[in-house]
Write a structure and sequence with these properties.
mainly beta; Lipocalin; 9 strands; 46% strand
Length: 167
């Protein structure tokens, strides 16, 4: 278990997110172009943030001052949660303390862990268990992440190389 936890430690960048309903052909949420970061610490803490790159900009300095439709679009294209994590067999359990989705606070979200060998190391694949949707169908989310090197180079804009807005 300690080895499994050690492999997770670090920060990961989202490579791909697929959503499969009733074992049909996978689709790609948010138009297939989301970005995301996932961090696991050696102290047993984690946080995940994902967003759609197609969210409309707010015409205001703060989101709370933006029109209702802009606030709704901002929330609909963003997912974020944080808390503790534990390992159970081939699964990581996210014990959620903070979340954009209020219903998730206090819940534990299970993710099945797989590793995919790549030319530059290993990618992390996290999958939800088959879950019943509000419409009564069965869905699975599968997210593929690649590790960000501890000392990721910074480009001339001050952003990590490979960042969607630079590098």
């Amino acid at each position: 278990m300690v080895r499994a936890m050690h492999r997770l430690i670090g920060t990961w960048r989202l490579v791909e997110w697929t959503f499969t309903v009733n074992e049909s052909r996978p689709t790609h949420p948010w138009g297939g172009d989301p970005v995301g970061l996932l961090t696991y610490t050696d102290g047993g803490r984690m946080n995940a943030s994902l967003m759609s790159v197609g969210r409309p900009p707010a015409p205001t300095r703060t989101l709370s001052a933006a029109p209702t439709d802009i606030r709704a679009a901002a929330a609909a294209g963003y997912l974020s949660y944080a808390g503790a994590y534990t390992i159970e067999g081939d699964d990581v359990l996210h014990h959620i303390e903070l979340s954009l989705m209020p219903n998730w606070v206090g819940r534990t979200e299970r993710r099945h862990v797989e590793w995919l060998r790549t030319g530059s190391g290993e990618d992390l694949i996290l999958s939800t268990p088959p879950t019943r949707t509000d419409g009564g169908r069965t869905a699975v989310n599968r997210l593929r992440w690649t590790r960000i090197p501890t000392s990721a180079p910074i480009d001339e804009s001050g952003k990590p190389a490979g960042h969607p807005d630079g590098g």
